[in-house]
Structure formats: structure tokens, C-alpha cells
Amino acid sequence: MKPEFLLAPEIAYLNHGSFGACPRTVFEAYQDYQRELELEPVNFLQRHFPEKMQLARVKLADFLHCHADQVTFVRNATYGMNLVARSLPIGNGDTILTTDHEYGAVDRMWEALCSETGAKLKRVQIPLPVECSQDLIDAIVEQIDSSVRVLTFSHITSASSLRFPVEELVNVAAKAGIISVIDGAHAPGQVPLNLDRLNADFYVGNCHKWLLSPKGAAFVHTAARWTDQIRPPIVSWGNISKGTSSLLLENEWQGTADISATIAVADAIAFLESHHWFDKVIPDCSRLLQKATKDLLEITAQHEIYGSEELRAPQMASLMLPQGDFANLHAQLFEEYQVEIPVFATSYGNLFRVSLQAYNTEDDVLRLCSALKDLL
Q1: Torsion of CA 67, 36, 16, 5, to 10 degrees
Q2: Cβ(172)–Cβ(117) under 8 Å?
């Protein structure tokens, strides 16, 4: 699959989780849309905007197994989480319950919202390693009290690559009368989703990571009861969408913007489907990731952070580093070995993350292993 992507061949790119990578054919479709936009901007952005967006939205809704009127496009998951957060009925005395494994920008957003509203942000500590999903559930349930208004967590965490038990946690929130907000930045295209069945209040996801769209495409899905209560952080003209809810009428049209990446989401989904992604590509990546994890654990001499298979993401894994100063490890790996991986400093120690996509080969992993042997 490597020739299907535009990535520089000399780089061992093991960092799909950070910014994704777009297939060549999807990128070409994206550029075609951009040319169409420049040939006749009014035609593209006004006359044909509603049907172009609706076609992409229906294709995405089919992929997510949800109703097209309950999902709207946004530029990225962080923007989508802000869209949700600033539409919630939160006030003084309320608690936002989250974990200490959340994405930094989103965690900062909740802090800002709490400082403005008088609400309290409470982070459940999830020490590493984690033995099983029930440990995650129990740790969160123990912190729920009558003040908790919102339960928010990642489907797959960014730094630690933990796969949270989303169905069980949504049920916990629903039974307690708590609003559930899921940051699914890393899930669409990596794990199968059925948002109708999940029935979370809010699910936010990226299209430009594992779903392989061009950069600048993400979505917000809301339960039916919330579709008329969503207001954008930036108020624009709106009212151009083919939808009927405020979710669409207030958010889909945001003035002059290049919507080519959004429209290309349909092309990205078609690419996944034509290559049997969930049946063939992801299982192949998972097998390579399992072997890589075993080899890397021998090099680092550290314990694995996942106590059971249910905690693993199919294409992402994070590993502990020994004690030491690893502030320059990311730069060293890239500059000296042309290996691209992220390194995270967390309260539980230093982690590095390996993300494997269809373009990766065993040679990419061997180069990482060789580099870490040298540097450690």
C-alpha cells in the first residue's frame, strides 16, 4: 500500500496518529474540488454548497451508522469539542468529570470553560499500567456524585493509546442522568462505529486521521434531543444547509472557507471500502503492531501498559521509556535516523507512541528498533 500514499519514502513514518496521511487518489480528488472552487467560487460556495455538503454528510453518516441530520462537519476534533462544550447547560456548582489521559488542548478547553462558568473540572487518575476495562469504569464511577453534570473521555487516548469502554461508560452516564461527551479523535477509521447504537449525547471525531481524508475535516454527532441546542463558537450567516436543525443551520455554513477537504471525506470512505479496510488492512496493521510491541519491550526493558486486549487500539500503541531525560528523543530519532514518532512526558513517566497504517512495513519498525537500541 505504500505507493498509494504521498509520504516521503526515506522517512519511517510511524506517527499516523498525530496528523494522519491522505492517500494519493483522495488527495487528487481534493485538489480537483479546489480547482472547481477557484473556477467559479459563487457556483461552488453558494449555488451548489447545500447538495455538496449533504452528499458528503450522508456518506459519513452511513459510515458512522447514524442519521445524517444528527452530524455536522467541523474543521477538527478540538473545534468540535469546543462547539459542544459551549452549548452545554453548565453553571456554578456543576462538575465536569474527565480523566488525566485527555488530549491537552481539550483539557485546557474544559479548564477555560470552568473558569468562566464557575463549574469544577475533576480529573480521574488512571495510573499505568491498566489491567482491564473494568478498572477504568470503576475508577470513574467512584468519582461520580450529585454535582457531576458532564462525563467526558476519549474513545482512544492520544498519549497512552488506551481504548476506553465507551458503551459501558455511556450507559453509566445515562443511568446517572449525566451528559456524555466523547472525544473520538482517533476512532473513526480505526474502529467500527455505530453511533445510533452507542447513543452518547455527543461524539466528536476526526476524518483526517484514521479515516484518511485531507486535513481540515472532522465531525460532531449529537443525540436527537440536542440537535436544536447547539450553537457555534463563531456566529455566521448559517441557514444554507439542506438540514432543518440548528446543528446544521447554524454550523454547516461558516462563510468563505475551502470546503474541499470536507467534500473529499466521501472519497476517503470510498477508498477504505475499496481496499477492504476493516477486513484486511487493519488486521494486518494490528499483527505488525503486536510484533513491534514485543520487540520494543525487549529493547526498553519496561512493562507493557495494557493488561488486556480490550484496552488496545488496533493501530496505535504507547510504550514506557526508562527513567531519564528524553526531551530530545523525538528530534534525535528524526534528524539522525529519519524515524517519525511522538514522545510524551506524562505524570506516569515518559511514553512514546507507535502508529501503524497501511503504508508501514516491517522495515519501518526495524529502523525504529535499531535507533532506540543506539539511543537508549
Answers
A1: 120
A2: no
Q: Which domains does the chain have, with CATH numbers?
A: 2-22+276-375 (3.90.1150.10), 28-272 (3.40.640.10)
pLDDT tens per residue across span 109-129: 999 999 999 999 999 999 999
**Residues whose CB falls within 8 Å of the CB of residue 110, separated by 6 or more in sequence, listed in order:** 85, 96, 98, 102, 121, 152
Which triple of cell numbers denotes residue 313?
487500539
| Cβ-contact 101, 127 below 8 angstroms | no
DSSP E strands, the chain: 12-13, 71-74, 95-99, 120-124, 148-154, 179-184, 202-206, 218-222, 316-320, 339-340, 343-346, 349-355
Which residues share a beta bridge with 317? 354
Residue 43, CA distances (Å) to 35, 46, 50, 58, 308 in order: 12, 6, 11, 21, 53
pLDDT tens figures, 301-338: 999 999 999 999 999 999 999 999 999 999 999 999 99
> What CA–CA distance (Å, rounded) separates 313 from 315?
6
Residue 63: CB atoms within 10 A of its CB come to 21
Q: Which amino acid is at 306?
A: Y
Specify the pairing of strand 218-222 against strand 71-74: antiparallel
Q: pLDDT confidence of 282, banded at 50, 70, 90?
A: very high
pLDDT at residue 80, rounded to an integer: 97
Q: What are phi and psi of 143, to 5 degrees?
A: -100, 0
- Region of 118 (left: φ > 0; alpha: ψ -120 to 50; beta: rest) is left
| Three-state SS sequence of 338-350 | CEECCEEEECCEE
Helix axis angle for 24-39 and 265-274, nearest 10°, is: 150
pTM greater than the 0.90 cutoff: yes
- Report the distance separating Cα 21 and Cα 5, nearest Å: 7
Largest CA distance in the chain: 60
- Residue 372: count of CB within 10 angstroms of its CB: 21
